[in-house]
């Protein structure tokens, strides 16, 4: 039977934890997350403003397309009141 000192057990445990594949994956993920947050922190406001500007431009473009379609037209210019096809124009039924 081998007696291990508490220091030896701690060293073995530390080595097992440091080189365990799941721990290595966690370290990689943490490094990637930190890098992403760093980049997002530097450029996040710029990207958000750019996206807002693009959205506003699309809305403005949609409004320009919709303007001619939603034009108010008086009834007299669309149906002449003395048209025989439209007897309701003068109240005749």
Short description:
This protein is mainly α.
Explain what the structure shows.
- The chain contains three helices and no strands.
- By secondary structure, it is mostly helical.
- 0% of the residues are buried.
- Residues 74-93 are annotated as: Disordered.
How are the elements arranged and paired?
Elements (H helix, E strand, L loop, with lengths): L5 H13 L2 H46 L8 H4 L15
How many strands appear in the DSSP assignment?
0
What can be said about the biggest beta sheet? Answer: none
Percent of sequence in beta strands: under 5%
Secondary-structure element pattern, one letter each: HHH
Percent range for helical residues? 55-70%
| Structural Rg | 37 Å
The structural class is mainly alpha
Shape: rod-shaped
**Low-confidence runs of at least 5 consecutive residues:** none
User: How many alpha or pi helices?
Assistant: 3
Averaged pLDDT: 65
Calculate the terminal CA-CA distance, rounded to whole Å: 114 Å
Biased composition (Acidic residues): 84-93
Region (Disordered): 74-93
């Amino acid at each position: 039977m081998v007696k291990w000192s508490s220091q030896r057990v701690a060293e073995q445990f530390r080595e097992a934890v440091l080189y365990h594949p799941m721990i290595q994956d966690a370290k990689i993920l943490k490094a990637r997350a930190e890098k992403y947050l760093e980049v997002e922190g530097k450029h996040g406001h710029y990207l958000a403003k750019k996206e807002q500007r693009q959205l506003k431009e699309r809305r403005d473009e949609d409004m320009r397309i919709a303007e001619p379609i939603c034009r108010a037209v008086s009834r007299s210019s669309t149906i002449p009141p003395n048209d025989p096809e439209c007897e309701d124009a003068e109240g005749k039924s």
